[in-house]
Amino acid sequence: MERLNRFLARSGVASRRAADELIASGSVRVNGEVPPPSGILIDPDRDEVTVDGRAVKPLTRHRYLMLNKPLGVITTAKDEGSRTTVLDSVGNEGAAGHRLFPVGRLDADTTGLLVLTDDGDLAFRLTHPRYKVAKEYLAVVAGSPGERDMETLRRGVDLEDGKTAPAEVEVVGFDGSVGAGRTEVRMVIREGRHRQVRRMLQAVGHHVQSLRRTGFGPLKLGRLKVGGWRVLSEGEIEALRRAVRIEPR
Ligand code: URA
């Protein structure tokens, strides 16, 4: 059940305060009846709400979060007993009563951008190979990959489950102060095979020391701190929908 003014606000009809005024003015009906000016609780799934005779539909009943997944936290919607999952990371406050699940996976030893939602249609498309959603990673690798390695990664490397599709790859930093040095590599892939980034870099001889996802389709991780989460904006949700060719609302 949900307060009528909240439902109206969520549906884009008016702010909550203005929705109270609309209710008091008698413009709003619930199942054909004028509710009391103090408002009422409605069942958004069953009750029909109209404003001046026009049906009101919420923009979305789904919830969409971005999490900066910490190290060691596992990407699953199942109860894993003692192991910390991404659902534990967002907690009850994040879920807000929704049955969230992660969109795609990150390894336990990968940090970064993970979307959680209860929108099955959008999640299905975002992870379907057909839509080739871009995933951006920053990897710190041992040593210093040369231009030939980079070209190989760009064109596709032979892995045991087949050759990878073309990827964007560039060196973004080098730290020569440790051992033989380590290099930060930015990589954008449009597939999502198991441990793909690690295996691609290993295939050209550079072990991945740490891996962070910084972009997912149109979304950027930005300054969200590790372990932090936030609700996606309407604009971000719309951009995700566009990325998988769902009609704009
Ligand atoms: N590639 C990997 O190797 N690991 C991830 O978690 C994601 C992509």
Give a structural overview.
The chain is α+β, with helices and mostly antiparallel strands and 249 residues long. The protein folds into three domains: 54 residues, RNA-binding S4 domain (Structural Genomics Hypothetical 15.5 Kd Protein In mrcA-pckA Intergenic Region, Chain A), CATH 3.10.290; 92 residues, Pseudouridine synthase I, catalytic domain, N-terminal subdomain (Alpha-Beta Plaits, 2-Layer Sandwich); 83 residues, 2-Layer Sandwich (Alpha-Beta Plaits). Helix content is 25%, strand content 28%. The strands form four sheets. Strands 6, 7, 8, 9, 12, 13, 14, 15 and 16 form a nine-stranded mixed beta sheet that branches. A three-stranded antiparallel beta sheet has the order 2-4-5. Strands 1-3 form a two-stranded antiparallel ribbon. A hairpin with a 2-residue loop joins β10 and β11. The longest helix is centred in the N-terminal third of the chain and has 10 residues. The chain is elongated and about 75 Å long. The model has no long low-confidence stretch (mean pLDDT 93). The protein binds uracil.
